[in-house]
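Help! Submission page says 'invalid entity' but I think these are all valid:
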Amino acid sequence: MAPVRELTVGQVAMRSGVAVSALHFYEARGLIRSHRTSGNQRRYGRDVLRRVAIIRVAQEVGISLADIAAAFQSLPEERTPTREDWNLLSTAWRDELDQKIAQLKKLRDGLTDCIGCGCMSIDKCPLRNKEDRLSAQGSGARRLVVAR
Amino acid sequence: MAPVRELTVGQVAMRSGVAVSALHFYEARGLIRSHRTSGNQRRYGRDVLRRVAIIRVAQEVGISLADIAAAFQSLPEERTPTREDWNLLSTAWRDELDQKIAQLKKLRDGLTDCIGCGCMSIDKCPLRNKEDRLSAQGSGARRLVVAR
DNA sequence: CTACAAGCTCAACTTAACTTGAGGTCAAGC
DNA sequence: GCTTGACCTCAAGTTAAGTTGAGCTTGTAG
């Protein structure tokens, strides 16, 4: 039984579908780790594929690399994450994800539901209210569309 | 009954929670419209608040201004959108929004569900599969995280 | 052993989405 | 009638997330 082979950048790029330059970039940002061969080339463990997959999906729904990196802080350095580790990350994100899902649903349904309001009474518009909630939670951890 | 007052940039900024400069920017990008007073100042109709609310929420979930602008194309120029108009926009987006919701759910649940896989068999990982589906639909309308 | 694809680093360029600043105009209150 | 805060335009700066390119090294297949 061959030991689980380590992956080169090229292989990771191929399997994950992101460019080599992006992998370098993620590494520079602390999102993924590698060790080097004697010839200074990167080698990745298998878990990098999971990380990259998560990065891509999270980004797609509007989570910034910085936030992803922050979430990844809960994962151990220099040790392949266990089920427990991933679990922690999961719970760390769950609220945020739930919120985003709710937001999307309201956007989707709001566009339909809101049709009656004609924006005559903005303050009662579901979309408007959602916005208010967003700015209401303004202080504290500000994420996404940060306007400095 | 006072006629529905038109709004100045400052008022829209205040009520919508976005900066005046952002409103200028949205206008330059064709996302919102205004007409000018004799003194060359912008005046907005009420519907601008709805538009801005939608812009903000859509952005928050990772939809680009370009895509939002494209969706807004279905809205009439120079006429306050009717329920029908907003309805069209709603259906235009519905699929995309449904997809995104599904994605978020999978990200959320995947982080939990995936715990057993330990990423030993990447090809069977729910997250990984989601990724594959994404790149599989690669051709055609490419949106979000466009890598040129 | 040598060719050449794949890696490496580092700096510079790109796009999106705004913000900031300079320099000038408008309008409402005193 | 003048002052002060809201507006205007246009150019340049900023941050995120990468990409591109130059110049140099590695490693594998013939």
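Support: the input was valid. A stray whitespace character was the problem, and the output above is from the cleaned input. Residues 19, 21-22, 24-25, 29, 37, 39-41, 59, 64-66, 146, 148 of chain A lie near DNA strand D (CB under 10 Å from a C1').
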